[in-house]
Amino acid sequence: MRILITSARMPFALGMIRKLADAGHEIYACDDTERAAGSHSRYVSDHFVTASPRDATEQFIADVERIAGEHEIDVIVPAFEEAFYLSTQHERLSRTARLYCSPFSTLARLHDKAAFQELAERLDLPIPKAVVATSDAQLRAATESMPRYFARAAFSRGGIALLTNTGPLAGAVSIDDCHPTEASPWLVQPFVDGPTVCTYSTVHDGRVTAHCMYRIPRQWKHSTGIGFESIDGTESLRIIEAIVGDLGYSGQVSFDFIITDDGLSLVECNPRATDGVLLIGSEQLAAGLLDPDAEQFVLAPGVEIQLDLALVGDAFADHLKRFPETIHDLARVHDAGDGWHDPMPTLYSALAVAHDKAMSLREHEKLFVSMAGDISWDGAPISGMSDADAKLLAGLTGD
To answer: What is the C-alpha separation between 38 and 43, in angstroms, rounded?
Structure first.
């Protein structure tokens, strides 16, 4: 097959590029920057620069449509939140190539944490009760009502702008800097004790074709994962199958859980790819992404992978406090790039790592905006979206 990977800057996009090519497919890549690491992989037949998904949505859609048509692309696989922008033109793009994501209405319901909370409760799945705050006063009242709390914007992603009074991120974000509105509400939940774990799955019409669950032994600033180890995904698979089956979901999907004394507790859903891609083998990933009839694959525990450049950067950013641990990890765990003989993406990734010195969490948030803000979606209306999608979004945000 000919496959177009969008948002080629993401580490897991590079993982998809390498593994799908290794499985025998012809890979093309695009991004709105020429510096996207994945675009410079030797496993890419060609790469393209598009308009910004967020800032020039209609031109971005036209660019992807043109690339897919001119190069006879079979499947378009979004790698990050540009999936939301592409999904608003799902029917249009599907006339040129198969778009491997669900329509906007489905993605938005999963990305909006308030809507996801309602879905999980309707399906009787384990998730902490939440208070939705749409004003500064409501946010302050909700946090004051809970001895230990955890709050974040309804349209956000893990590791960015987390408000809590418990754990390593306590006080990292001030409540004075958080301003919920009707259009951009915040969720406040009781803080749940236990380690956070993540999942990554490929799904076709509500059926999971590939699945992995993993812990993150190394994080950058207690947020972004830079080291990953697979664990038993049996319990999480049952929960995820209930969600994707109810929605008839197609595409990549990722969930965060907390391991409690009573089992897994849902935290949030990211209806897109995440670093779990890096743990799954080439043949299994290709089958999961591309074959709706593939036999279900569940990754066994004990597979480890890491991002060496990020580990080194983290060690220096932390004033070498974690340097002995970093040396141990570098000697023991495989880097995501090991064995691919594909050096150019590493050089481009190094440029990104070099930007981050000893950053605060607030600075980390600014770095995310710099690196991925133009391909992320935080609940704003999307240019060119249908009246039905605009109405749905207004209902989710309370406009």
So the answer is: 9
